[in-house]
Specification:
Blueprint (H helix, E strand, L loop, with lengths): L3 E6 L5 H12 L5 E5 L6 H6 L9 E4 L2 E4 L1 H11 L10 H16 L2 H6 L15 H21 L12 H15 L6 H11 L2 H7 L5
Parallel strand pairs: 1-2
Antiparallel strand pairs: 1-3, 3-4
Helix pairs in contact: 1-3, 1-7, 4-7, 7-8
Bound molecules: glutathione (GSH).
Length: 207
């Protein structure tokens, strides 16, 4: 098989890059990482050498170039079918896709107010109402998926799926900013925080 090259942004900040990395590692793949330092004037030009969108992550697999975190996760799910990166059951798979897409396109306040920062802990003194509403939605997704589909394991759909990869950086944000969660959601957050792939990712992430 051609080498998998995953072009990522600075590990401490690039939540979009973390998602396909976690998915790849959970599928048993070890992509070669090309890390591009973000928040520099040259970052965009450096990214454009790999990714036509000027954004990371971008996966290179032989002649195939896949940009966008969710598209990369879909590609990995097809490349490693035995890993079961989407739930086998059609109804569960549909919900897994829906919550992954909701994460991908939603939660704008959480993303803006609590951007991923793996190298600091800065608890939020106050939770603004718009952030509280998104946290309520997050809690509802996590609690509902765990209750309806999670019986077979510690993840949203029991065994690990792309949906968990999509929420992995959210778990780090919950920790960094000490965001309030109910008991069930907090337990799921801790499951994500304990992922070995996240520990690998953190290595060398901080200056
Ligand atoms: N929707 C895209 C978002 C990608 C994105 O916004 N990536 C950020 C880094 S996390 C980026 O490349 N920013 C360019 C820059 O900071 O120069 C995805 O899911 O991959």
């Amino acid at each position: 098989m051609d080498e998998l090259v995953l072009v990522i942004g600075s590990r401490r900040w690039s939540s979009w890059s973390l998602r396909p990395y976690v998915a790849a590692r959970m599928a048993g793949a070890t992509p070669r990482l090309v890390e591009i330092a973000l928040r520099r004037p040259e970052a965009r030009a450096d990214i454009l050498k790999w990714s036509p969108s000027g954004k990371v992550p971008c996966l290179i697999h032989g002649a195939v170039v896949v940009w966008d975190s969710l598209a990369i996760c879909e590609y990995l799910a097809e490349l490693f079918p035995a890993a079961g990166l989407w739930p086998e059951d059609r109804a569960a798979r549909a919900v897994a896709r829906a919550v992954s897409a909701e994460m991908h396109s939603g939660f704008p306040v959480l993303r803006q107010t609590c951007s991923m920062e793996l190298c600091a802990t800065t608890p939020l003194a106050d939770i603004p109402a718009d952030l509280a509403a998104e946290l309520e939605r997050l809690d509802a997704i996590w609690t509902d998926c765990r209750a309806r589909f999670g019986a077979g394991g510690p993840f949203l759909f029991g065994r690990f799926s792309v949906a968990d990869a999509m929420f992995a950086p959210v778990a780090t944000r919950c920790a960094t900013y000490a965001l309030p969660l109910g008991e069930g959601a907090a337990a799921y957050r801790d499951t994500l925080l304990a992922l070995p792939a996240l520990a690998e990712w953190r290595q060398g992430a901080c200056p």
